[in-house]
Amino acid sequence: MLSPSEAIKLLEAQSRIRIDQAKSMGDQAQDSETSPPLSSEHSAFSTNLDKEHTWFSLKLGSNLPDASEGIGLLIGTDSNKELIEAPDICAVPFSPDWLKGYMNVRSHIVPVIRLETFLGIHMAQPELAVKSAATSEALSYVLHFERGPESFAITIQHFPKKINLPSGAQLKMQIPLPDRMQSCIGHHYRFQGIWCEWHIDSFCQLINQASLNAA
Question: What is the pTM of this model?
């Protein structure tokens, strides 16, 4: 038979063992919650998400062939851009038709480009087009791109929207486009319309060259 002091020591030892076991089980449960193993379904879902790419989409009016669903430009989400409502635009006499004028943005004078006119994709029979309320509102805005000395703004027909394009939407063959537009875009996609990656650097070079030619 154990003495009282020996019995107390034995109970304390058993208690410490139970505490250690409980702590070990708790740590294992926490690890399981924070780092769950990926099932095959979970892995496939993650892979599908990785294949999507997010852009800002800017829909254009078009009379181009193979674009009956509509055509638009894809703008990188890292582009420094902003919508400006009803700006004061100063027209310039004898300027090219694609130049609407100039506007003051925080003490910087920037050109306002009629985008579709510049790219050569005018609306087909614009006098017959029925403009929605959203389109009519968008017409009072310009989209300004902050690029230091190469800053510019464009007229818009529709507000830009975020769009997620799956990799499978990329077209293997590009559709015919006007030369000026073709020289400032990348891949083509078909996803609820035709979308073209817009290379802003190349577009700015086109503006500079067109301005020199018009001078």
Answer: 0.69
